[in-house]
Design goal:
The structure holds two protein chains of two kinds.
Chain A: H1 3-17, H2 19-29, H3 44-57, H4 62-82, H5 84-87, H6 93-110, E1 118-122, E2 128-134, H7 141-154, E3 160-165, E4 174-179
Antiparallel strand pairs in A: 1-2, 2-4, 3-4
Helix pairs in contact in A: 1-2, 1-3, 1-4, 2-3, 3-4, 4-7
Chain B: H1 13-16, E1 17-21, H2 29-33, E2 40-44, E3 51-59, E4 64-72, H3 76-81, H4 95-149, E5 153-158, E6 163-166, H5 168-174, H6 178-181, H7 186-190, H8 197-208, E7 213-220, E8 226-237, E9 243-252, H9 254-302, H10 309-339, E10 348-350, H11 352-370, E11 373-378, E12 386-388, H12 390-406, E13 412-423, E14 426-435, H13 442-445, H14 457-463, H15 469-479, E15 483-489, E16 493-503, E17 527-531, H16 535-547, E18 551-555, H17 558-567, E19 572-576, H18 584-593, E20 601-605, H19 612-618, E21 623-626, H20 631-641, H21 661-667, H22 671-697, H23 701-717, H24 724-735, H25 741-767
Parallel strand pairs in B: 11-13, 17-18, 17-19, 19-20, 20-21
Antiparallel strand pairs in B: 1-2, 2-3, 3-4, 5-6, 5-9, 7-8, 8-9, 10-12, 13-14, 14-16, 15-16
The chains are: A alpha+beta, B alpha+beta.
Amino acid sequence: MYGIVNKAIEDLVTENFGFPAWESVKKQSGIELDFFVSNESYDDSVTYKLAMAASEVLKMPLEQVLIAFGEFWVLKTGKEKYGSLMEAGGNNLREFLTNLPNFHTRVSLIYPNLSPPEFKVTDSTEKSLHLHYFSHRPGLQEFVRGLLQGLGKMYNESIFIELIASRDNGSDHEVFRVSW
Amino acid sequence: MAKLLPSGNDLKFGDHFSILRPKFFEPGFQYLSHHGNQMIVLQPVKNPDLKFRGQVEYLAGKNQILFFGAPWFDDISQMRANGFTFLDFAFHDPSTDFLQVLKNQEIITNDIKELLSRINRQKKELEKTTQQLRDNQSQLKILSRIAELTINAVIITDAKGYIEWVNDSFVRITGYTLEEVIGKKPGHVLQGEETDLETSKYMSKQISEGKDFVCEILNYHKNGEKYWIKVFGHPILDEDGKVSRFFALEEDITISKKTEQALRDAKEKADASAMAKNIFLTNMSHEIRTPLNAIMGMGQQLTKTNLNEKQLFYLDTMNSAAENLLVIINDILDLSRIEAGKLNLENIHFNPRTLINRCINVMSPKANEKGLYLTANIDDEIAANLIGDPYRLNQMLLNLLSNSLKFTEKGSVSLSLRLMSEKHGVQSLKFEVKDTGIGIEEKFKANLFNKFTQEDESIVRKFGGTGLGLNITKKLVELMGGSIHVESKKNTGSTFSLFIDFPVSEEKEQPVEKGPTLNPEILRGREVLVVEDNLMNRILARIVLQNFGANVSEAESGFKAISLCSRFRYDIIIMDIQMPGMDGYQTTQHIRNGLCRNVPIIALTANALKGEKEKCLAAGMDAYASKPFSENDLIVIVAKLLGITGIDVDHKEEIKLYDLKFLEEVSRGDRTFIKTMIEAFIMVAEEVKSEIPDNFQQGNIPGVEAAAHKLKSNVDTLQVHSLKPLIRQIESEARNGNKNETLGSAIDDFSLIIENVLTQLKGELLAA
């Protein structure tokens, strides 16, 4: 996983619970890295361990941590670090989501060492679409849900997300029905 | 592109674009048509922020130039400012990717900046820590030096208590070198068979829990010598708060332990000696009070007999001496009770005004005798009833008053009671006894409240006394939580003040208890056994009991008593406790185990110390009387145990059938004379009371007249108003020979009244 993802977890914990809480999370996770380089690719286990440790230290279910983290990623990390790059993804939520597959294809070309997930959009209407999420990483669908919630907020849309298919239920990928 | 460029035909290129690069030539169709291999950067005239990058292609057939290019943005903000999203770009166009890479580069640059600032911060922290470490090390050096040089033993162990280091004093105190003890637990090396196991366990527990401790423990030197140390144990914590080491400072306290033991031994000896003194005083009090009891009782009985003036004087002197001796014994007993902590204070309701008035009444005769004014003054604010020990308060006030009266030759003695303050239902009172007496020397004041202290030998000779009174008063007032103060000036007078707090009682005033006037026939026909080894006391008890009509048997020992009990039936037994051979307790148990299970037994003892009563009751006795007993008290106890009701003749204000005023006047209050006269009346009246009705029955009317005449003058002397007209009527009717119904009815009335008069007069004698 991209360093900036881990960095975002650090920022989320530090901003909301203080530096000592982050120290505890890091200690709990057993990760001995003091700094995450944004563009560096880190082993996925680092991210998983941090998320699980945060769940234990902050006494929050893992799903809640991932959702909070997804929202934070869009609203804080994205805005602060990438600025208008996020908005360049589309003029509205629908455009942004529609552009997601191409965006990730571009990223995979620019950074060949990353293995970003793939997205596919189907059943697109004016106010809803099905977002298909293909990833070799397990257990991150709640992170995706958080990202989607964050995007809803970024575009000032009240968004409704429904997971209609999942690898947990025998499907080979996750499908979110997103409406707004 | 439509968002950025004008569209239409016949527009002039130069009106809409300028060429940003290459700059070095005048742009023109000619030039452009020949430089298809050149990268061209165009700038729209109306939007100079915007650039287009591309190349031109000359179409020779049409003589046209085509420009192939795309907008070039310096960054994404610029792209967004021109209304573009990624969706506006062709997939093959890498310019958005380029913008993304640029953005990432910016982020990485920020990463590097952040990293540098962190490194900088850490560097500063490191410098600070290094300085602290250097400071700590120098402090540590000083501390280690102190640890090395201190006269106390210093031990440093690891977290589990195994020795890592000891100082030189440890080596000196224990005899073990560092090499000998390293890696061992101090307890395993230093403790021995007499070491207190509990203390040892306590230390181990504190170490295992990482807690501080201080304790004293017996250790053994390498050569086997015992020594005492005081250990201060302290855990040394690491950064995480975990115990990394233990530090113990051990102070050799062998000498102070020995001193402490010596002090403890001395205190035990002192306690034992105090106990012995207490027992001695108790025994002494018994030995003295038993014969004194007899002396006083016998004296009391003797005053009831006919005595001449000389005999009366001797007897009065003897009684007063005996009373004084009793006061002294009581003082000594009080003192020994207080010192043994066995004096318990009452906590009962009492009326302070009644108490003060009684004190004044008791002391008035003495004051009158010396021609002194004795006055009392009580603040109105003082509560009607207080809670405390009125008996001991009375004792203290009487002591102060009698001192004042004793040491005052002219002037006055006053007792005042003042309210100093009142808070939460408690009144703080000041009892003040003030006199105009000889006063106290300044230098003596310091010793005033010590026992057996009097100002000088001449005082003892002149005024007598034991020198215990003030000491007892001081101890009593302190027992009550109060204090005593004295102000005095030689030859001017003294003022003694008692400061005591009393809770205010909510109860209404208690009725004043009147001592019962006993019916002299109260024990008529009752069989009483007196068990007493002392002859005088036995006789005294017998006389008292017989005076109330009892039939008395005597036993001089426990054995005799048991033998009598097996043969005769007694209504009640009066049992002395301290008898040689079988004592009162044992005798009682034998009697209780034998035939007389239910006979009431009254213990009679001179042992006035606390707990005696409980002991007697526990031994199976029913009641307890302390010697010397008062006649009334003993009779009341006996009567109550026998279930006799109406102990007192009459508790109500009795209408007197006679008036002793005349006798008191002629004799100037001489009680003995009055008593003699009453006895004389009783003697005559007992005769006449039967003579008159007997003679009347037998028709001996002159006999009736003579008998009436015999009593007439006596009736006048004692002012027996109820009989005065009656006896005269009988005399005159009989003189006239009128053996008629009038005389008969007068005689009937006489018989009834004379009986009542006699009962009242006999009561008068007993009360005297």
